[in-house]
Amino acid sequence: MKESLDAPIRYLKGIGPKRAQSFNAIGINTVEDLLYYFPRRYQDRSHLTTIAALKEGEIQTIKAQVLARGQKRSFYRRGMSIIEAQVGDNTGRISCVWFNQPYLADYFKPGTGLILYGKVERYGAELQMGNPEFEIVSEGEDDMGSGRIVPVYSLPSGMAQRGFRNLLKKALDEYVPRLSDCLPYDIRSQNNLLNLAQSLINIHFPQSLDLQARAYQRLAFEEFFLFQVPVALRKLKNKERRGISHNIDSELVSSFIAGLPFKLTSDQESVLGEIKSDMASPQVMQRLLQGDVGSGKTVVATIAAIIAIGGGYQVAFMVPTEVLAKQHYEKISYQATLPDRQAGKSPNQQLRIALLTGSLTKKEREKIYRQIEEGAIDLVIGTHALLEAGVKFKNLGLVVIDEQHKFGVGQRALLTRKGLYPDILIMTATPIPRTLAITIYGDLDISVIRQLPPGRQPVNTMLFSHKDKAKAYEVAKGQLRQGRQVYVVYPVIEESYALDIAGAKKMYGQLKDGEFKEFNLGLIHGRLKQQEQDEVMLKFKEGKIDLLVSTTVLEVGIDIANATCMIIESAERFGLSQLHQLRGRVGRGREESFCILVSDAESSKAGGRLEAMVKYHDGFRIAEEDLKIRGPGEFFGRRQHGLTELRIGNPLTQMQLLKKAREDAIRLIASDRGLGARQNLLLKKKLLQKFPEYEKLMVVG
Questions:
Q1: What is the Cα–Cα distance from 552 to 574, expressed in whole angstroms?
Q2: Cα separations (Å) of 518 from 313, 477, 514, 540?
Q3: Maximum CA pair distance of the chain?
Q4: DSSP 3-state assignment of 382?
Q5: Which CATH superfamily is 460-616 part of?
Q6: For residue 391, what is the DSSP state?
Q7: Are strands 423-428 and 396-401 parallel, antiparallel or unpaired?
Q8: For the whole model, what pTM was predicted?
Q9: Could you write out the three-class secondary structure of 423-484?
Q10: Coil/strand/helix, residue 84
Q11: Which of 121, 302, 444, 471 could form a disulfide with 288 if both were Cys (CB 3.0 to 4.6 A apart)?
C-alpha cells in the first residue's frame, strides 16, 4: 500500500491519521494528489534584496533578523490592532507591520531570522512593509527555502511553508523514480514537452525560471489532453449513432411560426437553420444553444420540439425549477393555440402538452406516466421529475435541457436513455466565448443567439455605496408609483454577522415597516417549500405584490414584463455571471428598467466585477470578464465539466496550448480509438483510472 502512488496520504512519513485530515480538507487524499498539488506562486530567493536596496512601491523579498520585539497597539475606535517589528540585515533596518493579527507578537522575538515578502511603502519619512508574508528561518536550516527559487503553497491547517516544502521534497525523491509518463513519446516530442519526472521536480523546486515555465507548460498540456481525449471519444461515438431523420417542413411547424406575435430575429433564424439541418440528418443531434438572458432561446427550442412532434415523436423538455417549468408550459400552450385565435376560431389544441413536477399528487403523476407511455402526450415539460423510473416514453425523439449547468452529466444521460438515440438540444443563458466553448463542449455543436428581440432596451445599471442606499430606494419608489414592480435581492436568508450582510428575512420586515410601507411586499427564498415559492411568484406576476424581497432563487426565474427595477444588496457577494442573470429578470418589457448594485466592496476583484456590470450589457463580454476574474473552474462548475482535473491549466490564458491538445487528442483517437497501440497503453491506463466509464466509448459501434 505504501509503495503505490494512490496510497492514502496518511501513510506518508510525517503525516499520520490526524494530520491527514487537514490534508484531505484541501483535496490531498493520496500521494499522487500531493505531487500534483502545485505552488500558488514562487519567491526568487536566489537573489534576495538587501534592505538598503529596497525600492518604494515594489514587491520584494528580504532576509533579515528581528531587532526589536513586536509591539501591540490598539486602535479602539476602529477595533484594529497593529503588530510592529523592527528587522535588519547588515545594510540597514526596516519596520514591518501586520494588522489584526495580535498572535504574531509571540513569533517576533529578537534574534529570530525571517524571510519577508511584501510591498515596500513609505510611512512618513521611512520605508516599511505592510502585512508581509513571512517565514521563520534558522541558519543552515531549510535548504529548500533559501538560495533558490522557492515555492509558496496554500497550506493545510497547522502546517508551515518550510514543513510542507520538506515533505514534498521527500515525496518527490521517493516516488518520482516510480512514475510512468502517460503522454506518448511522439506527442511529447512534437510539442517539445519535458517528461513527467522533470516537470514535477521543476514545478515544485525549479532549477531556473525557464525550466519552471516549461514544467508548467507540460503539466497544463497533460491536463488539457486528458480532458480532451474523452471529449473526442464522445464526439466520435455520437457520429456513429444512427438517430432520427425528422421531417423539418411539416404544416404544424409552418403554422406555429406564422402564428407567433413577433418576427424571429436573424440570429434566431440562423440557429433554427442549424437545428433543422441536424434534425433532418440521420445522425443524432448534439447541439448546445447559447444565448443571453431574454434572447429568445425558448421559442427556438419550441420550434425544434414541434418539428419532432410533427413527425410523430415525443419531446421531453427539462428545466431546473417548477416556476420555470410552469412558465414554459403556459407560454408554449398559449403560443400553440395562437393560429386558431388569430383565425377567430375557438382554440383547438394541436399539441398535447403536459406539466410534470414533484409537487403533483401521486395520482396526477401516475396519470401523466400512463399518457406518456401510451403516446397520448406529445410534449412533457418538467423538472427532475422527468428522470423518475416511472417516466417511460412510447417514442421519444427530442430532449431539450434548459439551464444545463443546473444538471449533472449523469442526469442528462439518464433522460436521453429513455429513448432510442433521441436528438438533444441543450440550452444555456451563461454565454461563453466561442473558442473556449468549442473546447469545453467539444462533443457538442454550438449555436449562438447574440441579438435581443426588437424593443428590448439595455437595463440601466448603477452602483451605490450603502451610505447612498436612500438614492437607490428613491429610484425604486419612482417606479412603484408609476405602477411598476421591483425586486430587492439579498445574498443570504438569515443575517450573517461574520460577513456583515443583512439577511433577506430581516430586511423584508424593515422595508415593509419603513421605506416601502405604502406598498405591498412579498418575500421568497430557497428555504420556502416549492409550493410556497410558486404562490409568492404567482402573486407577484398577478400584481398583488409590488416589491419582492428575494434571495438568488430569482436567478432562473419567470418573465414579468412589469418588473422594471432591481436592487441587489451586498452585490460584491455575487459572481459576475450571477449578477448578469439576476439583472435579466428586469427589462423584459418595453419600459426603461434599472438594476442598482449596492456595495462597499474593497477588494480589487469584487470591484472589478461591479465595474464590469455597470460598463457592459453584452452577456458574452461579461462572461469573458467573469472568466478572467474567477477562473474556469468556478465559472463552469468543476463537477459539471471535469474541470476539477485542471489544477494548473487555465483555458483563458493558455488557449493555444488547449487547442493544440484538442487537435492531438482528435488525431490520436482517429488513428487508435481503443488506445491499444503499445505507445498508448500507459495513456489508456491513466484515462481509465480517471474516467472508467469511457472504456465503452473506445469500442467501435
A1: 9
A2: 53, 10, 9, 16
A3: 96
A4: strand
A5: P-loop containing nucleotide triphosphate hydrolases (3.40.50.300)
A6: -
A7: parallel
A8: 0.67
A9: EEEEEECCCCCHHHHHHHCCCCEEEEECCCCCCCCCCEEEEECHHHHHHHHHHHHHHHHCCC
A10: strand
A11: 444
Using CA atoms of 65, 68, 69, 75 in order, give the dihedral in degrees to the nearest 10: -120
In the chain, where are the structural domains located? 44-152, 251-281+295-428, 460-616
Identity of the amino acid at 515:
E
- The burial of 613, by beta-carbon neighbours within 10 Å (0-12 exposed, 13-18 middle, 19 or more buried), is given as buried
pLDDT of residue 196: 95
Our CA dihedral for 188, 194, 196, 202, rounded to 10 degrees, sits at -160
Which of 695, 693, 691, 688 is closest to 674 using CA atoms?
A: 695
Q: Which residue has the higher pLDDT, 363 or 358?
A: 363
Residue 404: pLDDT band (50, 70, 90) is low
Three-class secondary structure of residue 134 per DSSP: strand
Residue 344: how many CB atoms within 10 A of its CB? 6
pLDDT higher than 80, residue 91: yes
Q: CATH 2.40.50.140: does it fit domain 44-152? A: yes
Min mean pLDDT across 143-157, 257-271, 586-600, 680-694 is at: 143-157
Is the fold of 251-281+295-428 the same as that of 460-616?
A: yes
Distance CA 437, CA 448 (A): 11
On whether the CB atoms of residues 528 and 539 are closer than 8 A, the answer is no
Helices 322-342 and 530-541: crossing angle, nearest 10°?
Answer: 40
Q: What was the pLDDT predicted at 700?
A: 63
pLDDT in tens, 148-179: 888 989 889 888 888 899 899 999 999 998 88
Lowest mean pLDDT among 200-209, 406-415, 612-621: 406-415
Region 186-205: mean pLDDT is: 95
Residue that the C-alpha cell 410533427 belongs to:
310
Contacts of 82 (CB under 8 A, 6+ apart): 72, 73, 74, 75, 97, 98, 99
Architecture of domain 251-281+295-428 in this structure: 3-Layer(aba) Sandwich (3.40)
pLDDT one-digit tens code per residue, 309-338: 999 999 999 998 787 888 889 888 887 776
Mean of per-residue pLDDT scores for the chain = 84
Q: Are 66 and 136 in contact (CB under 8 A)?
A: no
Polymer length in residues for the chain: 701
